[in-house]
Write a structure and sequence with these properties.
The chain has one domain: Large-conductance mechanosensitive channel, MscL, domain 1 (Non-ribosomal Peptide Synthetase Peptidyl Carrier Protein, Chain A), CATH 1.10.1200.120. Helix content is 66%, strand content 3%. It contains five helices and two strands.
């Protein structure tokens, strides 16, 4: 069983997938940092709101006995208050757009570098064409 496992792990597809998952998680961390540490502060400077994660609309009443802040999205959500967290959504949307654009650039470059699979096959050499014609003529001449 150990040999089978070793053969399975050493297959190219499994190793490629493992590398892709690791690189993808590292890339996700970079994109999150770019969004939270670079883009969102710039957007906050333009809009005057320094914390997009606390942008929300309260949709229902605060339960009796709640002692937390009424402007803390995470605390209200944890207390079961229905809230519409459009700030968190905006941050996730920016993350998605950055990742989608990076994947687009990667696929675009790969399409330029790699040959197309659906392209027409190369033409046969002239001697092969002549041999096929001779074969076809011989087939026709047989009774």
């Amino acid at each position: 069983m150990l040999q089978e496992f070793k053969a399975f792990i050493s297959k190219g597809n499994v190793l490629d997938l493992a590398v892709a998952v690791l690189i993808g998680s590292a890339f996700g961390a970079i994109v999150t940092s770019v969004t939270e540490d670079l883009l969102m502060p710039l957007l906050a400077a333009l809009t005057g709101n320094p914390d997009f994660s606390n942008l929300f609309l309260r949709l229902g009443p605060i339960p009796p006995g709640y002692a937390g802040a009424t402007d803390d999205y995470a605390a209200l959500k944890a207390a079961g208050v229905p809230v519409l967290g459009y700030g968190a959504f905006l941050t996730a949307l920016v993350n998605f757009l950055i990742i989608a654009f990076a994947v687009f650039l990667l696929v675009r470059q790969a399409n330029r570098l790699l040959p197309r699979r659906d392209a027409a096959p190369p033409a046969d050499p002239p001697d092969v064409v002549v041999l096929r014609e001779i074969r076809d003529l011989l087939k026709e001449s047989r009774p």
